[in-house]
Amino acid sequence: MSEKELLTVSNLKMYYPVRERNKGGIFAKKQYVKAVDGVSFTVCEGQTFGIVGESGCGKTTTGKMIVKLLTPSEGSILYEGKDIFRLSRKDQAEMKKKIQIIFQDPYSSLDPRFTCGRLIAEPLAIHRIGGADARREKVLELMADVGLGSDVYGRFPHEFSGGQRQRIGVARALALNPSLIVCDEPVSALDVSIQAKILNLMQSLQDKYHLTYIFISHNLSVVKHFCDRIAVMYLGKIVELADKNQLFRNFRHPYTDALFDAIPIPDPDQKSMRNVLEGDIPSPLNPPSGCVFHTRCRHCGEICETRPPLLREIEPGHLVACHVFGNH
Predict the structure, then answer these.
(1) CB of 61 within 8 A of CB of 38?
(2) What angle do CA 272, 233, 76 make, to 5 degrees?
(3) Domain 5-21+28-264+273-320 homologous superfamily, CATH
(4) 82-83 and 180-184 strand pairing
(5) Which pLDDT band holds residue 166 (cuts at 50, 70, 90)?
(6) In terms of Cα–Cα distance, which of 307, 295, 303, 308 is closest to 327?
(7) Chain-centroid distance, C-alpha 268
(8) Beta-ladder partners of 242
């Protein structure tokens, strides 16, 4: 795996303005939902970078900003050293070819009026690549790569299983020969029996096409199988960032600890000593002062309630945002 930095995310923020009515029916002071609040990380060429956390932590919003489906409130995203939000129109078109996305729901992300062949060929048509015959040949090649036979070329999405629909989504993401693909929980909507097949397919395609993945998930078991480096997000912030082996061998943040305890135990006779989180995730409209996790942390101290912890390196390549990470 190359150590060349392909993507650099710096102080990325996504704030949504909200106005609430007061009792008199007049709009109160504008507030902001802090969906993503100061996220920074780098992704190296050929790497699979995982972003994991509960629903609402900001991981999907981060992914959508990377593929320019959302414009950040603040911060920068550099692809090969170029800010993707400060490009000329021509360079933007080229950038869109290099960064693609695989969506979570393989059914809602596919136009039900389009056949399998047209769905995969659509990116080629939008970017005016090749003629009709060349596009068909490319589509059939991609279908073979993802395990779809040529006989399903003219079928519609409702005629496929969930796993087959996600294979169409993978083929469509590959159509423009990208170098970076954002995978937004690509297997969470699939049956467990199909998930491993799709993950193994994506790994084989990564080797064949020299791809870099950003893999978004809430499932640490899947992330362990698939990712090289992992960022743990909570309430819009990264609370721990490490290589896979470092994280699974020596995780240090209480929230990461709770995520590990949420992994199902396959042995029914083994007694569980789970660190169950109490309470719900606080509202991103009014996040807690100090450490955003302190309202649910059993190790919370006075400093946690008042001072936000910095994401700092505790060993080479292992960063943690916690005041008391060494005391639990």
Answers:
(1) no
(2) 165
(3) P-loop containing nucleotide triphosphate hydrolases (3.40.50.300)
(4) unpaired
(5) very high
(6) 303
(7) 32
(8) 230
Cα–Cα distance, 199 to 190 (Å, whole number): 11
* Tokens representing residue 250 in the block: 């020596």
> What tokens appear for 36 in the block?
């993503």
What separation in angstroms does the CA of 34 have from each of 72, 105, 239?
11, 25, 16
For residue 227, what is the enclosing H or E element? none
Pairing state between β 74-79 and 5-18: antiparallel
Average pLDDT over residues 211-235: 93
List the structure tokens of 51.
Answer: 């972003």
Other C-beta atoms closer than 10 Å to the C-beta of 210 total 11
- When pLDDT is averaged across residues 43-51 and rounded to a whole number, the result is 97
What secondary structure, in 3-state letters, does 86-127 show?
CCCHHHHHHHHHHEEEECCCCCCCCCCCCCHHHHHHHHHHHC
Paired tokens of 313 = 């390196």
- For residue 22, count CB atoms less than 10 angstroms from its CB and return exposed for 0-12, middle for 13-18, buried for 19 or more: exposed
> The whole model's pTM is what?
0.91
Q: Which residue has the tokens 């995780």?
A: 251
β-bridge mates for residue 17, sequence order: 32
Residue type, 323: H
Cross-strand pairs, 8: 42, 78
> What is the mean predicted confidence (pLDDT) over 243-269?
82
Q: Where are the domains of the chain?
A: 5-21+28-264+273-320
